[in-house]
Design goal:
Order of helices and strands of chain A: HH
Oligomer: heterodimer
Number of helices of chain A: 2
Structural class of chain A: mainly alpha
Mean pLDDT of chain B: 95
Distance between the termini of chain B: 36 Å
Largest interface: A-B, 16 and 18 residues
Distance between the termini of chain A: 46 Å
Radius of gyration of chain B: 19 Å
Largest sheet of chain A: none
């Protein structure tokens, strides 16, 4: 039913088009100006 | 509907920043916390000259004639700088409750404070205030200093007041309006304090190194600081909205939403900035303590989160039959 579909879709939302974690990195680097790199990502 | 400050408001905010910086910045709050109120009182005088203390007093009565949006701009800056003193009481709460002569005194720079039964049971900085009030049973009493209390915030010196002399009955709705304005000022202060704690944490994360790199490179920190940025960016429009809802039917709900969101954002900023600073953030010598204490103190004062959430619920849920 509709509620089950919506619930399952809500699990995908935070992942596609850049996970929420990637969005947080963008906020931290572009808005707060924290340095890139670390954690094995491009330095 | 405007959600951005006007040019005049930006200029007024910059004037506040310059005055605070000229007075020594966070050193004013530090001194106050250590018992030396002289720099803070000098700052109060300067703000009186700027017109800040009569912000919500009409121009006819010798005030600035400012709007609630102006109030939000001012208190966000006061929160950002952790300026000590009973500004909320003098500027936001009391002007609508006192008589005309007293209101003119407040606009001219008199220091006033108040305790309100049920909402703010202890008065802030009563020992330095020339006007002390206690709101009890729908009336305004003069207050005498009673038991002194310790606040979680080092710059907030609290005391219970006992009523003395004649009481002035408050008109219907007058106290509710004054408390709404106090809640709004507290919300704006919390946003300012939260912004400062985020700024301090971000600066520290860029210079403090661990494992050979600045700690700000690590995602674990980035994600926490990003969440603070999000919380503050969501709280600020609610505070602005509340300032624009004056005298509208949903004014109470708007102010309560602003107070809850600003309190939650400031508490998240406090927890996160403390963690980012590590052990140094816990020390009494570090300036961070000024804002770390303000977040829980102001989140609980002028209506607890539970009070404001209940008020929102009453407004949006169907009335009981």
């Amino acid at each position: 039913g509709r509620w089950v579909d919506d619930y399952q879709f809500s699990l995908a939302g935070p992942i596609y088009a850049g996970t929420n974690e990637v969005q947080r990195n963008i906020i931290a680097e572009r808005i707060l100006g924290l340095p890139r790199g670390g954690d094995g990502r491009r330095a | 509907m405007r959600f951005l400050p006007t040019e005049e408001q930006v200029a007024f905010a910059e004037a506040i920043d310059e005055i605070v910086d000229g007075a020594g910045g966070a050193d004013v709050a530090r001194s106050w916390a250590d018992g030396d109120t002289a720099p803070g009182l000098a700052l109060w005088e300067q703000f009186a000259e700027l017109g800040l203390l009569g912000l919500r007093v009409s121009e006819d009565a010798g005030g600035f004639g400012g709007t609630l949006s102006d109030l939000v701009v001012v208190f966000e800056r006061l929160g950002y700088h952790g300026v000590p003193g009973p500004y909320l009481e003098t500027v936001a709460l009391l002007p609508a409750l006192v008589d005309d002569d007293t209101r003119a005194d407040l606009a001219a720079g008199a220091i006033a404070t108040a305790a309100v039964d049920g909402t703010a049971p202890a008065a802030l900085d009563a020992t330095i205030a020339s006007h002390r009030y206690l709101v009890r049973d729908g009336a305004l009493h003069r207050g005498e200093i009673g038991e002194e209390l310790t606040s979680v915030a080092p710059t907030r010196r609290l005391a219970r007041l006992t009523p003395t002399g004649d009481a002035t009955p408050l008109g219907p709705g007058a106290l509710e309006a004054a408390l709404n304005e106090a809640s709004l000022a507290a919300a704006a202060t919390l946003v300012g304090a939260g912004e400062r704690m985020l700024a301090e944490a971000v600066s520290y994360a860029k210079v403090r190194e661990q494992f050979g790199r600045p700690i700000g490179e690590f995602q674990a920190l980035k994600h926490q600081l990003a969440d603070v940025r999000i919380a503050l960016s969501f709280a600020r429009p609610l505070v602005w909205n509340a300032a624009l809802r004056a005298d509208e039917p949903d004014e109470d709900r708007a102010i309560s939403a602003a107070k809850v969101a600003a309190g939650d954002a400031a508490l998240l900023a406090a927890r996160t900035s403390l963690q980012v600073h590590g052990a140094i953030g816990y020390t009494a010598e570090h300036t961070l303590r000024i804002w770390l204490g303000l977040a829980p103190a102001l989140s609980a004062a002028w209506g607890t989160p539970a009070f404001h959430r209940a008020r929102i619920a009453r407004d949006i849920l169907p009335k009981e039959r």
